[in-house]
Amino acid sequence: MKMPSLLLTVAVSAILFRCSLGAIYTVGGSRGGWDESTDLEGWVKSIKLLAGDKLVFHYSKSHDLVEVPKTDYDACETTNAIITDNSGKSVVPLTKPGKRYFICGVPGHCASGMKLEVTVFAATHSAASSPVTLPALPPTTLPSGTPVTGAGGSSPSLPPAQPSSAGPRSSLMPFVAYFIFAFAMFAF
C-alpha cells in the first residue's frame, strides 16, 4: 500500500472510531448541573439522545443519583431503585432506545424539580431524512465498566466516571468517512 493511501486509511479509521463512540452530554449543560436550580426539563428538550450516547451527572455530596422506574419517578420514590450513586460524578451509558428516569433520592429534592426523564432514540440513519440509500455499518459496542454492589448491598452502582468532552454530532459523518475509506482502499 502506498504511503498516502496508508495515511488516509489511518485518518479515516480514526474518524470512524470517534463516530462510533456516541456523544457525551453533561446533564444541565454548561450552565447547570444535577441540582435543584437547573432547568433539567428545558435542558433535555434541547438535545436528542441516541443509543450509544452517555450522560454525565455532576453533583455535590448533598445530592445523589437514583435511576428508578416510571412509577417511582412520578411519586419521587426510591423504593425500586435500578441504580444508585453518590460519588459526585456519575456516567450513565445509554445503551438502548427507550425512556429512562432519574431522581435525586435526598428527601424533598425530587419534589423540588431534581428529576430527569430522558428518551433515547435508536442510533440509526433515517431513510426519510436522506434520499440516498447508504450501506449499513457494523454495530459497535461501547466499552463500559462492570457495575459493582452499592454500599447498601442491594443496588448496583454506576461504572467509574471517565473524563471526556462532547462535541456536536453529525449523523452523516460515519457515512462520509466510510465512503472515503472505501475510495482509499480501491483507488490506490
From TrEMBL:
Pfam families: Cu_bind_like (PF02298). GO terms for cellular component: plasma membrane. Residues 23-122 form the Phytocyanin domain. Residues 1-22 form the signal peptide. One of its GO terms (molecular function) is metal ion binding. The keyword Signal applies. Coiled coil: none annotated. Residues 134-165 are annotated as: Disordered. Keywords: Copper, Glycoprotein, Metal-binding, Signal. The keyword Disulfide bond does not apply. This is Phytocyanin domain-containing protein. It comes from Saponaria officinalis (Common soapwort).
